[in-house]
Structures are given as C-alpha cells and as structure tokens.
Specification:
Strand order of the largest sheet: 2-8-7-6-5-3-4
Shape: globular
Distance between the termini: 50 Å
Number of strands: 12
Strand content: 5-15%
Order of helices and strands: EHHEHEHEHEHEEEHEEHEHHEHH
Helix content: 25-40%
Structural class: alpha/beta
Bound molecules: pyridoxal-5'-phosphate
Largest sheet: 7 strands, mixed
Number of helices: 12
Length: 411
C-alpha cells in the first residue's frame, strides 16, 4: 500500500510548533541514512570514523552558531529532553551528591509545558518550586527574582523567548542576579535560537536547551549547552555508555546530528537577511490586523518581542472558531502541547489577559518560507471570518449594547 501525504496548497503559520526541514538540510542528511551508516562511537573502522567526523562537524556548526565551545554541546532528542536533563540533573546532584536537605528551584509562570511538567513532578518529590509571575506584557518580575533566591535555591530556569507570545526576557539581568547569588541559570532558548543573538558568556547562562525542528532542522534532535567553566555540577539522568560527557548516553542519531548542524550553519549565514525579511512580514501582518479589525490587540510587549511570533486577541469571537473558519491557513491558538486540551493558555492567564480575550487569541508564526502573498491571503480572509463570527456572537451584541465584561460573572 502506498500513501500520498501531499497536502496541496496551504498557508503554514504555525512555525512555533514546528518548521519545515530546509531542503538543503534534508539533502545533507540522506547519505547518513544510506551508505554512511556507521556508529559514531565505533573506533575501529572507516564507517565509525566517517560518522564520528560528521558528528564533530555538526557539533562545531551548532557551537559556532551559538558562539560557544563545541565541547559544551550535548546532543539530546530535543528541547523537552534537554530541559529535563538540565533541571533534574541539577536537582539530583544536590539530592544525591551534595545531600542538600531542602532544595528550591525558581522558574517562571510562562515556561513551556516541558519545564512545568518536570517541576510539578519535582514538587511531588519534595522540592520547593517558585513560579515567578509576569507583568501584563509578559516580562518576568525581576525584583521578585532577587527576593525569592535563598541559600536553598539551586537553579533558576527562565526561557529566553516565549513560544506563545514571542516576548524576550532580559537574560542579561537575570544572569547578573543569579551570578550574584551563585545560583545556576538555565534557559530554554528554543524559540530564541535563529531569531536573536544570545550572548552566552555575557549573560551567565550555565545551561541552555534548544531544538532542531524549530530552526528548519529534523525532528527528534536538540541539544543542551553545558558550560565548561565554571563547571556545572550535574548528575546524569541518562548515563548509558558514557557518551556526551557522560551526561546523555546512547548511540548518536548521526543523520539527525548532521541535519541539526547544517540547519545551524544555514541559519548563521542567513540570519541578518532572514531577520529583516521576517520583520517586514510581521509588520505587514500587524498593520493589516490592527488597521482593519476592530478591537484587535497584540498580546505582549511589542518592543521586546521577536518578529517571528505574534499573538493577537480578537475579542468576542473564539480563537478556535477563527482558525476553523480560515480554511487552508494553518494556525494555532497557543502551544501545540496544550491544543488538545481546551484549557485557556497558561501564558495569557499569567499575563492577566481578560478571560474573554484569552479565548479569542490566535498565534501567528512567520518563518523562512513565508511569502508576502501568504500574509496577504491571511489579511484578506481574516477580517471576513471575524466579521461573520461576530455577527453570530451574543457577546458581540452585548458589547455593542455597552455591557461591561469585567462585571460579568463567567461560568
Ligand atoms: C518546541 C519547544 C520545546 C520542545 O522542543 P522539542 O524538541 O519538541 O522537545 C521546548 N521549549 C520551547 C520554548 C519550545 O518552543
């Protein structure tokens, strides 16, 4: 039986969930599925040497792209795994090696699900976790960070760029606060890589998680940056055969490593042009939305946001209904991980966005392969869909009659 998965003509704007593997990346990977199938850890023959060399080059491309040492890159299956290795690794070091009696971790209330799920598990195991609030623009309360750090605090984990609203956190200042108290700083930089330059050395980041499939590489691979100096004390939760500095055992997926490396090499070359192009598409989208759709509003702070991710509220209609109404346009209301549940976005809730505005929010993800025509298609269809939905919305009628929604008790 053969399958034809070709989808026809769609406008894809769900890039924070995943991106297309760049065709140049795919091409680079193919030989490593075929003739060059060696195990990179085999030291005795040409197959092993070829695989090892390819992995070394890939690791170098990733390190160069980040501006770090290649010995600081640990391959993982993705950012979820990198997050868990980092957080559990630090906590477990303190539990089992340092035998710290009470362990405290600080994170933010708008992290990716993979961080929150890991922290919730640790709470069940007796670790104390503080979830720092954010302001209405999505920025983490820094004054509170300094106040929450105690001599029990072993880790601060705060993401660089949020995957739902695109807001950039002030890593430099967070790093300064951590350094002052001697606390390890981990950052999930998955949505920052390829979108902005991060100064790993200047911002005191000891650990950082990234993912290949968010930057036009293959799915199933990512990396954990582990700073070498000063040394980060981490207990491996994946010891295996001692690969990856003993932090992450297991045979390396050579084709995926090669693809990830190539994705980084291409991104570092094309970064300035791509940023310009995506910024102008983002401005075109925002101008069209804010100019033509009454009450439309950007969620999060415009001035400290990556242009790749924009989240708009269209009050009095449901985000899900908008998305369903926009046939052939691929969008999401928030993170892919929570889109199966109908729970309102924890990110928008943390920003204290009004409940009815949260339900009406849609995320737009612009990427390398987005064209001006794609944006024009959205700008042509979106106002029509919203006007139609508002025409059927009792909330919209109430709004026009002057009902104050902050006074309404929601069920
Ligand atoms: C996508 C994403 C992840 C998960 O990455 P995987 O490689 O799919 O595990 C983690 N954090 C953020 C911010 C993300 O956007």
């Amino acid at each position: 039986m053969s399958h034809n998965y070709s989808l026809g003509k769609y406008v894809y704007l769900d890039s924070p969930a995943t991106t297309q593997c760049d065709p140049r990346v795919t091409e680079k990977m193919v030989p490593f599925f075929q003739e060059l199938y060696g195990n990179a850890h085999s030291k005795n023959h040409a197959y092993g040497w070829a695989a090892e060399e390819a992995v070394d080059i890939a690791r170098m491309h990733i390190a160069d792209f980040l501006g770090v040492d290649d010995r600081e890159i640990i391959f993982t299956s993705g950012a979820t795994e990198a997050n868990i290795i980092a957080i559990r690794g630090i906590v477990d070091y303190h539990r089992y090696k340092a035998k710290t009696p009470q362990i405290h971790v600080i994170t933010s209330s708008i992290e990716h699900k993979s961080i929150h799920a890991c922290c919730e598990q640790l709470e069940e195991e007796g670790v104390r976790v503080t979830y720092l609030p954010v302001d209405k623009n999505g920025l983490v309360a820094l004054d509170q960070l300094a106040n929450e750090i105690t001599n029990q605090t072993v880790l601060v984990s705060i993401m660089a760029v949020n995957n739902e609203i695109g807001v950039i956190q002030p890593l430099q200042r967070i790093g300064e606060i951590c350094a002052k108290s001697g606390v390890v700083f981990h950052s999930d930089v998955t949505q920052a890589v390829g979108k902005l330059k991060i100064d790993f050395n200047g911002s005191n980041i000891s650990l950082a998680s990234l993912s290949s499939h968010k930057i036009y590489g293959p799915k199933g691979i990512g990396a954990l940056f582990v700073k070498r100096r000063p040394v980060v004390r981490l207990r491996s939760i994946f010891p295996g055969g001692g690969q990856e500095r003993g932090i992450r055992g297991g045979t390396l997926p050579v084709p995926l490593c090669v693809g990830f490396g190539e994705a980084c090499r291409i991104s570092s070359q094309e970064f300035p042009d791509e940023f310009q192009r995506i910024s102008s598409l983002s401005e075109r989208l925002a101008a069209g939305i804010l100019g033509n759709i009454p009450l439309a509003k950007l969620n999060g702070e415009k001035i400290s946001k990556v242009p790749h991710i924009s989240n708009f509220a269209f009050p009095y209609v449901e985000g899900e209904s908008i998305i369903m109404g926009l046939e052939n346009i691929c969008l999401s209301t928030g993170s892919a991980c929570s889109s199966t549940s109908l729970n309102p976005s924890h990110v928008l809730q943390a920003m204290a966005v009004d409940e009815y505005a949260i339900q009406s929010s849609v995320r737009f993800g612009i990427h390398r392969f987005t064209t001006p025509e794609d944006i024009d298609i959205v700008l042509e269809k979106l106002p029509v869909v919203i006007e139609k939905l508002r025409g059927m919305s009792p909330l919209w009628d109430m709004y026009q009659e002057g009902v104050d929604f902050n006074e309404v008790k929601w069920m």
